[in-house]
Amino acid sequence: MLFTTSKLSGHAGSRFGYTRATESPAACHLQARHVHNDTKADRYTPCRALRRWALVRDEKVARRAISYIEESTVGTSRETQLRVLKILKVILANLHGKEDIFAFGYDVMSSRWRRLNAVVSRSTRISLQKMPPQYCTYFNRIKEPSPAYAWVKCEWVEDDDCYETLLAAGINSLTGTVNEAGTRYTRLSLIKTQDDFDMLLERITEFVDAEKHGRAPAASSSM
Asked: Which residues does the UniProt record annotate as the domain Alliinase C-terminal (predicted)?
């Protein structure tokens, strides 16, 4: 079963797959507000659908637009189906070849996991989950781990909220309480552009190196 093509292929334009109810056009609420200036008041109607905003002057037009979006997204459009079919054909044509998307994905993610592990292994303050090599049915051999997310545990007693501990060092993550893991745990996403991952690794390195000096690294914009 294919859950979503955009996550499989990295092609965000496909938008073929499961959509959470909170992001569906049906969940878009019509809300009118007035914007005043010196001479007149214009009515604007903002509508949120699939994380997009539209400002429409005429409320009737806005309601018709919402109705169109709801009806046109009940099923998957023909255009999207053809686009997804093309993407899947390209993926299948390159399986186990030089441009195999799964080999590319594995190489990138396994490299990121090794680099992150090398840094965190020097720390007594934080640790990563243990992931042994496993047999891969696609490559038909034992492969090193290549996770999309890294679970971090704060080991020091005073760091009872791992999310806040990393955030203070400019490292953005997802608190473990969201996944019923407790505040001692937080999750880092390794699915980033290469520049963003390099910056994340730089922040983690600064965080680990600061242990030797008994200080927290200076906070900056979160990654």
From this structure: 53-208
Q: For the chain, give the number of residues.
A: 223
pTM for the structure as a whole:
0.68
Q: How far is CA 134 from CA 110, 127, 129, 130, 143, in A?
A: 13, 21, 15, 12, 6
Domain parsing of the chain, residue ranges? 5-93, 101-213
What would the CATH number be for the domain defined by 101-213?
A: 3.90.1150.10
Give the integer Cα–Cα distance in Å for 60 and 68.
Answer: 12
Q: How many CB atoms lie within 10 A of CB 211?
A: 16
Handedness of CA 85, 90, 93, 96 (dihedral sign): negative
pLDDT 10s digit of each residue in the chain, 223 long? 565 676 677 665 565 554 443 333 333 333 333 333 333 333 333 333 344 567 888 899 988 888 887 776 666 777 778 888 888 899 999 999 999 999 999 999 999 999 999 999 999 999 999 999 999 999 999 999 999 999 999 999 999 999 999 999 999 999 999 988 899 999 999 999 999 999 999 999 999 999 877 655 555 555 5
Taking the C-alpha atoms of residue 45 and residue 48, their distance in angstroms, rounded to an integer, is 10
